[in-house]
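Lecture notes, unit on protein representations.

Consider one protein chain, 88 amino acids long.
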Amino acid sequence: MAIEVVTKDDLEAFRQTLLNDIRTLLANNKPETKEWLRCADVRKMLKVSTGTVQNLRITGKLKSQKIGGMHFYKLSDIQNMLGGKTDS
């Protein structure tokens, strides 16, 4: 069995390489934003109940698209509603 010697310089080079790799990964790790959100996503975003999301939809304050029995909400519509903007 051969003996391999690891020097302080080897460890320092490994550390620098590892840190650079981690920095690269963190720099490229941008959060993914969805264009369309489900009711659960909207509830978490607005910190409201399912009934409140339903009321916003029924009163026309928040538009949705119904696909296969599920309502989907456009992120830009939610942001506009929060900002007080209306499309009408």
